[in-house]
Amino acid sequence: MTKSPSLLQAIIPIVFLISLLSINVYLFGDDATYGANQIALLLAAAVGALIAGKIGFSWDHLLKGIVKSISSAMSAILILLLIGSLAGTWLISGIVPALIYYGLDILNPTIFLFAAVIVSAIVSLATGSSWTTAATIGIALVGIGKAMGIHEGVVAGAIISGAYFGDKMSPLSDTTNLAPAMAGTDLFTHIKYMALTTVPTISITLVIFLIWGFTIDSSSSIGTVEEVHQAIASKFTITPWLFLVPLIVVGMILKKVPALPALLAGALLGGVFAIIFQPNIVLEIAGSSGSYWDYYKGVMMALFNETSVATGNLMVDDLLSASGMFGMMNTIWLILCAMVFGGVMESAGMLKRMADSIIQYANSTGSLVASTAATSLFFNLTASDQYIAIVVPGRMFAPAYKDRGLAPENLSRTLEDAGTVTSVLVPWNTCGAYQSTVLGVGTFAYLPYAFFNILSPIMTITFAYLGIKIKKLAEKKDN
Q: Could you give the number of structural domains in the chain?
């Protein structure tokens, strides 16, 4: 017979995990996510399973929870694999080099960070996906920023800020649909109400990056930009026709083609364009220069293997590299281990037990919203999945908001302001692992500069404590 875990029993695996993660960061630094953190997650899951077994949960029950948790991440894992392939063929086809080449002509260092937020926001708003934004325009923007001599963490922070603004506000986004469904309101009421906190937050973010741009010495990048131009042009055939592939992919997503077939089409089209526009590079990747099969071999290697193109310029060579499917395996390893831990904790009722203990201290509207935000952040840290960080707090807090006469859009807004945007700030969360891998920038490197993501939960909590735009159920009935 099973019984509910005590608060202490629920906390022990979390404390154990945090302790191991801290030790790993101290011992391994940025390399902690290349194995040490994965083992820490599995060991913490084992501790959770031992406690769960002690209070009566069978191994079969816990295993079903683990399988369910991993199943929820399968879409993300498949997308990661295809993103790796897409990055490879978009490199050898010249698509990413062309984006960097023309981007250096259009953008100057002073407005680059500001423009990176705007461009990322527009793409994410149109596609409803921060992941697709990072994998397409994000990769190119990181390359452009590096060529301008701007710190990669700052560039990634600007990209992620814009991408998550668009992800939050787009009716095509899965989290933007999930949050109101959990809270009990409709999509467009949710978006309209969320804009009250989201617009001020993105405005502050834009001002910060605009001011930051004026501190960048643009004169020092002129020579560097010219070197990058020459290095890329010496190796690739640069033509606007290359942009046809990303336009097709974006068009497919706008037409609501699912992400997996759209990304697969983008990766394969990149391979076709590589053979058409960059045949010499395809043969170089294949390691030979003979039969037609060598073109197949070169494209295939770009799809699955780590790929780089040498230009003779060390800085440009660093930009012109891609991971392929193989390069995504470490991230997938991290996601699988995180889902094992989350599956044990959720199936044993430990996550719910900790969240329940938080609700009892929420006596005011401000403290209720703050508790919701803290719980969403907590689940991002422990369950390692933004969907759990929306679904579980949404189900838990919905009755409390109703009992206090608060309209459900207060809850849905808080779930997005805290659950959606903070997921990318956690290295072992599916979102943090994905973005750091795709952009090639460590989570802790961009975290201090992802201003939109940091400010969003602070903004929603501030609104609640100050009583700004807090809709009551009575007001909703009168409208």
A: 1
DSSP state at residue 186: -
pLDDT of amino acid 270: 93
Distance CA 389, CA 175 (A): 10
In terms of pTM, does the model score above 0.85? no
Of the candidates 114, 85, 297, the residue with the CA atom closest to the CA atom of residue 205 = 114
- Structure-block tokens of residue 293: 């099969």
Tokens of 205: 């973010």
Residues 118-174 pLDDT 10s: 988 887 876 667 887 887 778 888 888 888 888 999 999 999 999 999 888 887 677
Q: Are 14 and 382 in contact (CB under 8 A)?
A: yes
| Residues paired with residue 472 on neighbouring β-strands, in sequence order | 406
Tokens representing residue 412 in the block: 């849905």
In-domain check, residue 306: yes
Q: H helices then E strands: how many in the chain?
A: 27, 2
274, 89 Cβ separation under 8 angstroms: yes
Print burial letters for 115-128: b (CB count within 10 Å at least 16), e (below 16). Answer: bbbbbbbebbbbbb
Say how far apart CA 399 and CA 395 lie, in whole Å.
8
Distance CA 345, CA 44 (A): 10
- Structural domain of residue 205, as residue ranges? 64-479
Token reading at 449: 């500069």
Q: For the chain, which residues score pLDDT lower than 70?
A: 1-2, 30, 76, 104, 126-128, 172, 218-225, 289-290, 315, 318-319, 383, 474-479
Residue 58 is assigned to a structural domain of this protein: no
The pLDDT, as a whole number, for residue 319 is 66
pLDDT in tens, 226-280: 777 888 888 899 999 998 998 898 788 778 788 788 889 989 999 999 999 999 9
Task: Classify residue 219: in a domain, yes or no.
Answer: yes
Residue 468 has which token pair?
A: 């700004």
Residue-level pLDDT at 58: 93
The three-point CA angle 172-186-378 to 5° equals 75
What SS3 string covers 16-43? Answer: HHHHHHHHHHHHHHHHHHCCHHHHHHHH
Instruction: Select from 447, 471, 418 the least CA-distant residue to 192.
Output: 471
- Per the listing, tokens 């494209």 go with 299
107 located within any domain: yes
Pairing relationship of beta strands 321-322 and 307-308 according to DSSP bridges: antiparallel
